[in-house]
Structures are given as C-alpha cells and as structure tokens.
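ok new one. same drill as before - structure tokens go in, u give me an amino acid for every spot. 195 of them this time. try not to just spam alanines like last time pls lmao
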C-alpha cells in the first residue's frame, strides 16, 4: 500500500483551527469550574513532613488534556510556537505583533520557570519537562521510564511535582486565551495579510 500525501493546512486554516480548539477547551467542565491547584506542606518539631495537594477532578482533567495537549504537541498544527510564528509573520499591525511577542515571552517563562527549582534524584526539572513526563507516562502513552520515575518518588516530592504540572497547565491555558483573543481581534479587524 502506498502512503497517501495529506494536504497541509494553510496558515489561515491553522489560525481558524486554533480558535475552534480554544472554544472546545473552554467548553470542558474543568474550564467552566474552578481549576483547583493548591499545594501546602506542614513541618512540626519531631513530626514527619505533611503535604497536601488539592487538585481538579481526575476525569475532568483527562477530558481537558485531550484538547490542551494539542497546543503543546510539536507536531500539531495548533502548537503554540507554530501559531505564534504564523501571527508574527502575517500580522500587519505593530501593536498586535507586540502582544504576540509578549505572549511568546510569557510562554517561555511558564515552560522554563526557575522561580522554584525542583531537583529530584539530582536532576532539575522544568515545568515543561514535568508536563511531558505526565502526558507521556500517565495520560496518553505508557512510557515505562516516566511511570517508574513517578512511582519512585516520595509523596512530598510527588505532590510537589504534580502541583508544578497543574500550574503549567493553568498558566499555559491563560496564555492560550490571550493568544486566542489576539487572533480573533485580528481576524475581525483584517490585521492578517494572507497570501
């Protein structure tokens, strides 16, 4: 059997798909309800460390991740960097380009956030790496090394890792909404120059 060539989406179609997928994301129960992500720990003299993580309902999170992962999966047409590159290339309005540049910088910061360094078994993990571990070993694939890693860390570290994963999803989602608003406004005001 020969491999059929698939038609590639145009840049305009990718932007339109982005808007559709953001709308799809906004219709999930997790997006409509409170996105719980509260992590706390308590230390008392002579007592073991106690940690607590309040997090979203697991079924709601899985449903949300089905669409969310398309924004961070490099091979997807709506991958955030791909969409940002299209906007940078096609926007004719300098103000909108500045907003896109700010969104790109925010995305970089949330993925590489160094404000709280997480070092487990001697290795430093960025929020993007943590998210990759969860997506590829717990939610969408069965990466054995990731599963073994998640199973091997103590509860305190596990809760902290999970909180960082949820934080990444939460703040990347806010950036997705910002980008979506820029794209929708730019469509309405004819600020894209398509070929």
């Amino acid at each position: 059997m020969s491999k059929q060539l698939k038609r590639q989406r145009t840049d305009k179609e990718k932007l339109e798909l982005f808007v559709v997928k953001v709308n799809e994301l906004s219709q999930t129960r997790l997006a409509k309800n409170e996105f719980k992500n509260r992590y706390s720990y308590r230390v008392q003299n002579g007592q073991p460390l106690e940690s607590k993580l309040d997090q979203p309902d697991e079924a709601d999170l899985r449903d949300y991740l089905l669409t969310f992962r398309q924004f961070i999966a490099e091979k997807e047409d709506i991958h955030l960097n791909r969409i940002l590159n299209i906007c940078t290339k096609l926007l004719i309005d300098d103000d909108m380009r500045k907003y896109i540049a700010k969104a790109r910088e925010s995305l970089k910061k949330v993925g590489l956030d160094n404000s709280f360094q997480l070092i487990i078994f001697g290795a430093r993990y960025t929020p993007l790496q943590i998210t990759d571990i969860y997506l590829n070993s717990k939610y969408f694939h069965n990466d054995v090394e990731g599963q073994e890693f998640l199973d091997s860390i103590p509860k305190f570290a596990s809760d902290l890792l999970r909180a960082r994963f949820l934080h990444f999803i939460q703040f990347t989602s806010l950036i997705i909404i910002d980008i979506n608003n820029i794209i929708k406004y730019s469509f309405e005001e004819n600020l894209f120059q398509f070929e």
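The mean pLDDT is 90. and btw The first helix runs from residue 11 to 26.
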